[in-house]
Amino acid sequence: MRRYFSTFLIICFVMIFSGCANPYVLRKQQKSLVLSQDEGVVLFTAEVSSGKYRPFHYSLQEINQYKFYGALNKYIIPCVPENISGSFLVFGLKLPKGTYKLDSFTGQLGGFFGYQHFLAAGNIFDVTPMKITYAGRLVFDWSTAGYSQLNLVKDEYAVDMELEKKAFPVLQGKEIVKDLSY
Amino acid sequence: MKKRAVPLLLAVLLLLPPPHLLQAGNNFAANKQSKEVSVKPAQEIPRVHKKSNPNISDADAMSAEVDFYLGNHENSERILKGLKDKHDRNFALWSNNLASLYLSEGRNKEARESLTDAFLLMNNFDAFKNLEAKALGITGNEASKAYKGDPYEKVLNSLYLGLLLIDEDDLGNAAASFKNGILCDSDVEGDLYKSDVAPLYLLAARTQIITGNQALADEYLKTAKDAYYLSHPTNRQIVWEEQILQSKKSDAQKELKKLLGDQPADAKEAKKASKKTEKKIDGLKSQIEALDNQIKEKTALREENNKKITLPNFNNFLSQQNNVILCIETGKAPLKVQTGTYGEKAIFRLKPYKAKRFSVLLDKHINIDKNCFLNNNDILYQAETRGGRKMDGILKGKANFKETTAKVSTAFMEMSAIAATTTAFSGSGDSSVAGLAVTGAFLVAGLVMAATSAAANPSADARHWSYLPAEIQIIPFSAAAGKHHVSLISCDDSGRELKGMEAEFDIEVKNTGTTVIFKRIFERV
């Protein structure tokens, strides 16, 4: 009985924490960043004017006209603690080369007594192989109860690079080029 | 047995994914109905007598596109040639993309061959007809049709082909190509969009002058001016609004005609019917009148704007002294993206580009007059103004069908669950057996509806000529026969020079005829 219970606990432990080892997300404790010829890194930040926002996860969709719609890759990316940097949200992703659409964020607005809030994005960015690119700062404004909408993609390269390098020290000393999302 | 059956049914219900997830699953899983089909076109198209490379598949096409924009043209060309050799439903797409690659490298002859291959298929209604029929079905996939391009792609194919035929002094075919482009761009209600692609008319006028048909050239020139005004950025919003009003007016007129035509022969029936339809007819007539007035207002506003627009010097295009036509391509093609719950709508998104203005210097000292430049030929405008294909209505129907069947399936599943729970509490006996039968029936019905919903395929076709530029600027100028050096300075919208985006290249001007040069400016990361 004890053995079965231990096995059950281990399985639960593995299931809960295996989700955190997402291959696409950059992490603070990451020591190296190696890109193959088919991979690139995209960095972007977000600013939510509706209030203090805590994202849980966000979704991306591959854009590829050569694939049938049902075969397009869709990603649900979990958020990690380093994604929150003061009043800004800071993201770094390592993805296969191509074009992607950032669909939305799911999270909570308003701290402890907050409520679920949805950020509708819809911006498109390119992932260039062997390059680290900055896709801009996404500015979300209040739209209606329950969700905010992407209003603008700003170029805040200087400020955002400080935020990104603080959140992901592995970016220190690396060349980061601008390729704003649209 | 009965005691075990109910919990078993409940377990099945709990473990089965609900219908809305089956719908989503269809979006996540590969669409099994959409298999690669290699078919012969109805008519012969030029064939390359090589064996297709079995190692190259559609999955490599995105890699080719990324390589093209990164400058790795060799790999891109290898993949596109391999794909083109398959002679599949995307033959015209591969040909167009390959042509753009050749143009960016100054390989005009190969570009012309590729464009011709695409032209023959895109303008052939009968080619791949069997695939059209499949796509129209409720479970058919739009993307399984042969790619024949949206009207704007046919226009650009014709424009590029015509220019390259001018370069080869094949003026007859060049004129036919421009005419084809004009016709592709002209199928709307009213005269509003009697093609707004000014370069087509200007180049058609030029070919007519060379062949000695002045009257036709004058007609083309007049229409070129109209097209330029229509497509000028200051008029675009007004023209779009006018088009919507024209569309509404046309729909109302069709409905009115139908009502007027449907009057029954029998007098008694006619009297009865006329009371019902009279109100409708009156309503439609006043609606048409109101729309007419609104259209007149928009037209007046447009004509007011036309007075403020400075036309480029169109005579530069017609003058035979200007024996060189330089086409500068800048930016990246508008991206066609599927959107909506089931990807049933296709919209265009344009990646911003910086190089919008250019200075052209010939032999390092002759500055080509900017009044010669034919600007405002942006591809996004052409793509969006032809965005509503006839298929869209059917796709909306497919999307509605998918949603409705999914909702019905959910309802059946819920009823099945309720029936199962009720059966569990009804104890043993006949009522329990009846309850099981009802539960089972709802479950089966729910599964059938879920499967039907999942099979419905409303996703829009996102295939597009992605190697196109965002904009083409056409510049005619004069140069003596022989070698010349061209310096191109790229500037942004405000006229500020863009470092790293200048171009220096040599051209060879022919002794006779017109020399057409293409230069692509890439904004690489």
Average per-residue pLDDT of chain A, rounded, comes to 90
Tell me the β content of chain A: over 45%
Range of helix content of chain A: 10-25%
- Poorly predicted segments of chain A: none
Strand order of the largest sheet of chain B: 5-4-7-8
Basic shape of chain B:
globular
Number of helices of chain B: 17
Description:
The complex is a heterodimer of chains A (182) and B (525). Chain A has 182 residues and is an alpha/beta fold. In chain A, 15% of the residues lie in helices and 47% in strands. Chain A has helices at 2-18, 157-167; strands at 39-48, 53-63, 74-78, 84-85, 88-96, 98-109, 115-127, 132-144, 147-154, 176-178. In chain A, strands 1, 2, 3, 4, 5, 6, 7, 8, 9 and 10 form a 10-stranded mixed beta sheet that branches. Chain A starts with a helix and ends with a strand. Among the domains of chain B are: 2-30 and 394-455; 235-308. Chain B has 17 helices and 9 strands. In chain B, the strands form 3 sheets. A 4-stranded antiparallel beta sheet of chain B has the order 5-4-7-8, with no helix packed on it. In chain B, a hairpin with a 3-residue loop joins β4 (357-362) and β5. In chain B, α4 (73-84) runs antiparallel to α5 (91-104), α8 runs parallel beside α10 (198-210) and α16 runs antiparallel to α17 (430-455). Chain B is globular and about 105 Å long. The chains are: A alpha/beta (182), B alpha+beta (525). Chain A binds chain B through residues 38, 63-72, 74, 97-99, 101, 124, 126, 128-129, 131, 133, 177-180, 182, and chain B through 26-31, 34, 58-59, 61-63, 66, 70, 141, 143, 335-338, 342-343, 349-352, 459-460, 462-464, 466, 525.
